[in-house]
Amino acid sequence: MVKILDGIHQTMDTFSCGSIEIITLEKGMLGIYDAIKTRHKQSPYQERSSLL
User: Fold this and answer.
1) Largest separation between any pair of C-alpha atoms in the chain
2) Which of 15, 18, 34, 36 minimizes the number of CB atoms within 10 Å of its CB?
3) Global pTM?
């Protein structure tokens, strides 16, 4: 997780907010969030290991 956050930080330092790289990064992060949110709504109980 630390490596992922470091990579995001480096990407944000390297590229401007309106660049295609940041837009792609944001879309990917929102897609992951939506997928997790949708899965969570379908199942009242979710094992912790399935979130990793």
Assistant:
1) 40
2) 18
3) 0.61
